Amino acid sequence: VIPLYNKQREIGEAVRSVLAQTLLPREIIVVDDGSTDGSGAMCDRLAASAPDRIRVIHKANAGLGMARNTGIEAATGSYIAFLDSDDTIHPEAYSACIEAMESNRAHQARFRDRHMTDGDAPDLGNVDASPFIYNTPALMRRIAKVIFGQPYVGDDEYNIGGSACMAVYRLDIIRRENLRFHSERELLSEDFVFNYDYCMASDSIVWLPREYYNYRMVPGSLTHSNFLGKMERVENYSRHVAAMLLRDGFGKEGEKHAHGYCIGLLRVCLKYVLTDPAVPEAEKRAWFDRYIRGGYFREICDDYPVDNMPLAHRLLHR
Asked: For 263-272, what is each residue's pLDDT tens digit?
């Protein structure tokens, strides 16, 4: 499933990377989320060139999460994977994942990504690394909560990622549990929440430590001004995740995984807001007083375990 919004220049490369898979998917579902730049028409032309493989669904714009849900509802295969419209996937990725899932009777396969910019050659993957299987209830719960943050010593080894694009799922589990994506307009990192729910509903994951996903970095795409109003959404997300963890019996210590994600984003926002020359000094001070001196973020920062942070993060936290 490839959600698409205004990626006319990149969408052809994304689709071709799926058509180049050694195990060709039954269907490639491109969900045009109300594009205005000609992307939708380009996808129609791609579909005409491979009508037995490519389906295009045009819909009104509602965001990434809703576009992925449209793809879930339209899918007919046994397995489902997601690819963003400006990224590419290694040609052996899906065959390796499905082979590992079937040989280990796993409910999900996950893999690594590689960040690349225009002009970089797609990575061929570390094909010699051996898969690792997680298949006990305790391991599944540990992986589920670590998706959001790693505040405790030993958490890092269970951090196998929360992106929806670096995984292959079983469609029957998604349908059985009625799993869908939240809108990213309501919850940041909506795919982390989806992966948490999927992990809690399944009993095994096979981890392939290979860089199969080529994530395109677009210089300048994260403008500094975007971060001025982001912290309210970060707080909403952290509160939602903390409530999920409490609901599922992880206790007050489990909440710290939600807080860790929030604190990490706070560091990023702090960097961009304070170094943006376009933001007046008084506005920076007001932002700092609101989000860092008091309120929700002061509360969770004061109570957060810092011993497992890298030194630079501990210093900034203090």
From this structure: 988 888 888 8
